[in-house]
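Margin note from the TA: students keep mixing up input and output lines. Inputs are the sequences; the output is the structure of the whole complex. Example:
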Amino acid sequence: MSATILDGKALAQKTEQELSRRVAQLKEVSRERTPILATILVGDDPASATYVKMKGNACRRIGMDSLQVELPSSTTTEELLAKIHELNENPDVHGILLQHPVPHQIDERACFDAIALEKDVDGVTCLGFGRMAMGEEAYGCATPKGIMRLLEAYDVELEGKHAVVVGRSPILGKPMAMMLLNANATVTICHSRTQNLPEIIKGADVIVGAVGKPEFIRADWIKDGAVVVDAGYHPGGIGDIELGPLMDRASAVTPVPGGVGPMTINTLIYQSVDSGERKLGKG
Amino acid sequence: MSATILDGKALAQKTEQELSRRVAQLKEVSRERTPILATILVGDDPASATYVKMKGNACRRIGMDSLQVELPSSTTTEELLAKIHELNENPDVHGILLQHPVPHQIDERACFDAIALEKDVDGVTCLGFGRMAMGEEAYGCATPKGIMRLLEAYDVELEGKHAVVVGRSPILGKPMAMMLLNANATVTICHSRTQNLPEIIKGADVIVGAVGKPEFIRADWIKDGAVVVDAGYHPGGIGDIELGPLMDRASAVTPVPGGVGPMTINTLIYQSVDSGERKLGKG
């Protein structure tokens, strides 16, 4: 039996068509205005620059605008906070993305948390996380929310299933665990201090790899029929999970690349369009 | 081998002595001012009235003042929000406790979340939860934070241990899971939709019962040597866990009553004193 491929690339493309229609409709009812995502890039890290560019491109593909803010690597916390407050106040900006990571001298958490809740379309604030965890309205953190959207698109059942999340980062493992819990899965959160990781993973109906180490999670730790979600990406198209042997015996697998990756940016623009609709009116 | 009794009553009493000294010291340096906890009771539920009274008594025992606000059961969300805003603005109030539950017509979540972060000494806001979960400074939710304080007082090792939390309520299961995770435990969150609950509990080094059903968690589901924390309380002094048979073979047990219960109120006043010190100065 061959695993179902959870094709994030295809779902993202399909969603972009729907988002294009929504943006076009919004233009009609709002005198040609579109949702605008402000992207903030601090410093000159080439990978970060590439990510920001990809996000701007995704906005353009669906007819949205992006406002690209670039700040020097010497930027202070106060300067970045001032810029975020300015964007919070700007009525033309519907979403704010602060590209992670920022240079070391900046208090990244303070800057994330300065983003207004209704513009936190990347889902990075503590307030948004807390609200999401408690079942209140809030934009979800982009990568885990993208994973949830992907699982939902393929009707993957989560209720009562045992989901094991490996990793506990603020923008992946922790929100992922809370989203799976709110979808009625039983959730285990593992991390670098976990003992008997293979044994715990053996019990997983759904496994999410979010450790940031190439193929750290071995295929033979995973039981037949599991749903395998790989949120990692490493040079050469390798994820956090040894996916090869699972293609025959998992029930579903997110490929690397083309699984979780495209859903992250897609969720960012999806939530930006939602925020734009709330401000500009749905027609 | 007899289980260590995690004696919350004794720890609470010992902590009250320390808190009394801190309050007395604060009075000295602040012209006889003390930390003040505002308690809000809405309606005439006798159990809630008793809890609020117990909290007021605990304040008095350590020399703190409490400001008791009582509102009729017909109170609207807007009226309660107005009262909370007033207490937020009142510089003499250092902590705010809104007694749960409030009457049905009130949006309890909105009212909880209206409490200013620095006065959220009961740890009920979404923002406080999110900050705690992300490792930022925030008062912990009183019951799970009380449990963490109890485990710490008895040097219970959590790092790398498998902790299973049964229950996922906003003020118990969810914050408990995040606190245990931040203490480097591997954490599993179970709930009413969990399948194979006995089997999952069998793997627990630390088990926290927070389901609200008398002795729902059976002793024979729990392995020898586990640390057993019972956050339930039912008439007749029964908890959520069948504790009797565990007294011989668990490594540690919170008794019911006298385990978790006293730590909840103790944590509330502990955090109120902390808030008072921050405002009135530590001398």
